[in-house]
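Teaching note: in complex prediction, the entire set of molecules is handled at once rather than each chain in isolation. The prompt given to students was simply: 'Predict the structure of this complex.' The entities are:
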Amino acid sequence: MELTGNWFAESVSPDLAVLLRLRAVLFSGATAYQKVEVLDSEVFGRSLVLDGKTQSTEVDEFIYHESLVHPAMLFHPDPKSVFIGGGGEGGTLREVLAHRSVESATMIDLDREVVELCRAHLPNHHRGSFDDPRVTLRHEDARAFLQSGGDGFDVIVLDLVDPLEEGTAYLLYTDEFYRIAKARLNPGGVLVTQSGPAGLPNHRECFTTIFHTLSEVFTHAAAAQVHVPAFQTLWGFTIASDAPLQHQPEPGLDAAIAGRISKPLRHYDGGNPPGNVRPAKVPA
Amino acid sequence: MELTGNWFAESVSPDLAVLLRLRAVLFSGATAYQKVEVLDSEVFGRSLVLDGKTQSTEVDEFIYHESLVHPAMLFHPDPKSVFIGGGGEGGTLREVLAHRSVESATMIDLDREVVELCRAHLPNHHRGSFDDPRVTLRHEDARAFLQSGGDGFDVIVLDLVDPLEEGTAYLLYTDEFYRIAKARLNPGGVLVTQSGPAGLPNHRECFTTIFHTLSEVFTHAAAAQVHVPAFQTLWGFTIASDAPLQHQPEPGLDAAIAGRISKPLRHYDGGNPPGNVRPAKVPA
Amino acid sequence: MELTGNWFAESVSPDLAVLLRLRAVLFSGATAYQKVEVLDSEVFGRSLVLDGKTQSTEVDEFIYHESLVHPAMLFHPDPKSVFIGGGGEGGTLREVLAHRSVESATMIDLDREVVELCRAHLPNHHRGSFDDPRVTLRHEDARAFLQSGGDGFDVIVLDLVDPLEEGTAYLLYTDEFYRIAKARLNPGGVLVTQSGPAGLPNHRECFTTIFHTLSEVFTHAAAAQVHVPAFQTLWGFTIASDAPLQHQPEPGLDAAIAGRISKPLRHYDGGNPPGNVRPAKVPA
Amino acid sequence: MELTGNWFAESVSPDLAVLLRLRAVLFSGATAYQKVEVLDSEVFGRSLVLDGKTQSTEVDEFIYHESLVHPAMLFHPDPKSVFIGGGGEGGTLREVLAHRSVESATMIDLDREVVELCRAHLPNHHRGSFDDPRVTLRHEDARAFLQSGGDGFDVIVLDLVDPLEEGTAYLLYTDEFYRIAKARLNPGGVLVTQSGPAGLPNHRECFTTIFHTLSEVFTHAAAAQVHVPAFQTLWGFTIASDAPLQHQPEPGLDAAIAGRISKPLRHYDGGNPPGNVRPAKVPA
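The expected output is the structure of the full assembly:
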């Protein structure tokens, strides 16, 4: 491959980086909260980059967003009200809204400018989900919002940037925050959070900590991992609930997907969860 | 991360490359067949690089070698004689020899110099397996060897470099070669081959072709994929046999591992195969 | 320095490349003749890149354009009519027009789109020179234009992309083309051409060939070299004439600059030419 | 150019880096004082890298070492005793010893291990100069050595790593150190120091400061700059003396070189100094 041209460089772990050839830089700037870039590449299409980290790309965001949303939603028998923390691209919202049972989705993303940039530049991510009448979109602190009380949620989906010490989301991965979130869950409610890199060399960055923190706050916790090509590594998710997280066997799960989700899925199906959602595989 | 210092650059797919910070270059040269490097890095320890492509690394080779060897070996009820094509590092040989049933392992690696470099520089890969009295090691063309007739094998493990047009192994991924190999399998015999990258952006490079070729030559074929960190992507394997490839349920598989393999495994266990060895997931 | 972020990579010579951190990609596309990018960086400001090679940057283009234009113009006692081949950014035109003696400047740049992109994106390069009433700008083949006959020129300035075999300008560095150009020079006329990299490792790519070709076509030839930071190497220029190329001593040259050029120069002065314009230093 | 393979990355200035394809890493380790690498590349041959910065390369070290040593030596009418601070590769020593007048050369390099690595790995740098009977080599602090008194020197050559705050040589670029060095100069003595990058974007890193510091400590100071390809930029030198630094005209200088230096030079000659050693060109 040719070295010449324009490249986006991103670190995967200490001493390891990825170079992605760029087709265009659609936006490069900063909001009140973070640096933002919207990039375009032959390999991954359009991507959102926050503080130098790829959040999702047009080509493979379905793997990430389906893995984040559907296992958690399907653990709940009938999710009507859903809370989304973060998720500025609108892909998480899109997957949540595909559940026929959903009557309201409340999305809180602190950074209004990021959401506006995504609406303008990433139409294949959100696919109009922000215009769905079931959606309430607010730009404020998710913690304060959850703490302030109000109606409960059946599912809480946390689609936040990784918990870097200097980042905007650091306080949304703590035991304290999870207790606040849990207090807003309806009985039988389920919480899921993206949980950072989950490969052999990097799963200890935050994945195992998040799993263990959630295991202490909730009665049940399950970990999942999936390969997201744009992240160059396995990616982790953690699902937690005080209700049991019981896997359906394969045919039952495929039937549940067909019955409860109003569109075909591209990644998640009955063949995936036994391999992907296995708490026993989270290293101590 | 700091850009300065020494780096190894490797392409993952067109327009995408990985930079790995180097601790040392232990060997850099060429044999009669290929360019060879033995590198050392903080992230992956010692690694073998052939014609610019990472073959395996000290830190994560167990994921690759266990995934290549054990599912195939365990599909066979009692593998006594095993053929290995390629596998110069000795890691495949090491895993094969861990099966208590194995009475002979015949390893054919064309490139004597590569094997000698691995014996000298990669002790944590081979761990002395070349000295096992059950081993016959020869340096010649695997195809000619298999074609020349002789005793049959219960399992054939192909651990070859990817089928690049200009590479040494191109002719060892063809329908013609697979028929030659099959002719040397004992009744009920199993063949497995490493099958190249298996992620969303690159599984069509060779993985799907290999699966479909083997599906035509054998009655049964199964595909597996696993994340190998040093390859920066999912990696594919294909298992083929004229005997049915029947999965044991989880407890049975863990028991089989404990009963048949003389050492603890680090990656492969009863939790893995349902998610990893699923022919249905190979795209058309 | 941090590796993360967006970078422009350019090769300097075989096995050597430069990475420049990008602030923005202002344009990326292709015209009928070549790939074009307008980049922006902290280090060099806005730059024009044609077929992957940096042509000039906002921060240091004055070094290149003054070195290309002024020594050649000052070798001529009274240049009134000037021909410019290439020079799409308008920087060469700007320096030519700064000579009080110039009555007409005819600029032929094949690629109309590049010139329009430069007019739009590189105002600090051309600084309005395209609007000067002395300028005739045409978009056609420079060779055909010169060959077609018409008024002669006192100075011909060739500011073309390097003579790559697949490039647009390859035929404008030949002995045949130089004879065509020479035929359009008025008596005592001077020709100057940018001549590619002139550092120790790369001066043989084209610099020495151009010097020797011009030495055969003209009675006198002189070579100059100057360090252009954005090119990461010394850069070469060759001046040729049938009239003697006689250096003025330092005070005389400073006086000539002050008398003949209508603006202060930023790089070229009496201290530079003895070190920079020395035919003896071109290797055989 | 191909991205794949092994590369050495070095920063030139903020946001700008160079990638050099490596042929081999001959040594990589650390002494008591600094990180040391001996690299080998097709472009530059063998090179010494200290704390990540290239010090000199086999292919172009003659440009650096001739430019450091000869102008300063030739400003002195008859240099018999020379002091060298740093210069572990032995190239500076080699050039000093080429002066027929030299009776003794005292080289103080703090880091014995670096000198030993250079003697072992860089024979084309030192070319046996360490074995010359006129040489005294010591490994101690240059400042303490000069301060401790003893015989005076006709020329002091400082070939130290750049004055980085965390580096070993920071205190050897101060006004205080220059006064100590000056006290050891014989009447009419000359001091020269390498002075860091001297290109448009980076000459203010240390070059201008060194020139101004030396201008205050000595009656006369002269700056030189030369393009060293391996440094990817112009490089600065500063010469200082209480005796006038008077340039000889070109034929006289060529004669002086022929008369006083016992070998042919490859870079420095009568054509160079007027362009290279010009105090007026150091920006304020």
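Point out the following to students. Chain D has two domains: 7-57, 61-281. Confidence is low (pLDDT under 50) at residues 273-284 of chain D.
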